[in-house]
What does this fold into?
Amino acid sequence: LMLGLGETDDEVKQVLCDLAEAGCSILTLGQYLQPTKSHLPVKRYIRPEEYDHWREISLDMGFAEVSAGPFVRSSYHAKEVFLSAVAGR
It folds into this structure.
């Protein structure tokens, strides 16, 4: 899930709920970065504390593992995240 496109906290929370309800157990949260001028611009840069906040909320919702930070991408330490999630079951 990329953040920084103008989403509200309520929208992020709803997406987390939808993902959890769908059975998603591994989550990555990162900063959207505009790849070219023809793509949507960044609306806001997310503070590190906000990533920590969303990580805690996500874990409390039942996600097995959550990587959250400005440079996190869906493949961010994928092997380690997967093994950690499996070990936590």
Notes: The chain has a mean pLDDT of 92. The helical segments are 9-21, 48-60, 78-87. Strands lie at 2-3, 26-31, 65-68. The two ends are 23 Å apart (CA to CA).
